[in-house]
Amino acid sequence: MVTLTKAEEKIMKLLWELEKGFIKDIIAQMPDPKPPYNSVSTIVRVLVKKEIVGFNKYGGTYEYYPLISKEEYRKSQLGSLVKGYFNNSLSQVVNFFSENKNVKIEEVNEAIKMLEELKKKKQ
To answer: Which of 1, 101, 113, 117 would bridge 76 by S-S if both were Cys, CB 3.0 to 4.6 A apart?
Structure first.
């Protein structure tokens, strides 16, 4: 799976929400000030080349749609992050977040619950 630039990710998030759409539909979902049509079109064409986005052609107009799900991309990126920065170690990830002083106790309790459930499944 390829890594997307921040601009490409912004477009993909909008396409995942829309499920399919024309460039004008993507731009309509963007906050003001809206980027130029040609800029968005260029990024979408790059995503097509990366085989992340597909299209249907209607005359001279193109309707775009994601070829991968948000979940597939998220799994891929998180997996790369854990592998690259935490030696593929869940305990290193947990340690990293445990050192973060902004973690809420509710989140810690939820994480413990999830880890307990995972432990039960693995036994």
So the answer is: 1
In terms of Cβ atoms closer than 10 Å to its own Cβ (0-12, 13-18, 19+), residue 20 is middle
Residue entry with tokens 């299209």: 55
Residue found under tokens 């079109």: 41
Residue 91 tokens read as 């305990």
Angle in degrees, CA 40, 67, 21, rounded to 5? 45
- Residue where the block lists tokens 């989140």: 107
Question: Is the bond leading into 33 cis (omega within 30 degrees of zero)?
Answer: yes
51: region left, alpha or beta (phi > 0 left; psi from -120 to 50 alpha):
left
pLDDT in tens, 76-111: 888 888 888 889 888 888 888 878 778 888 888 888
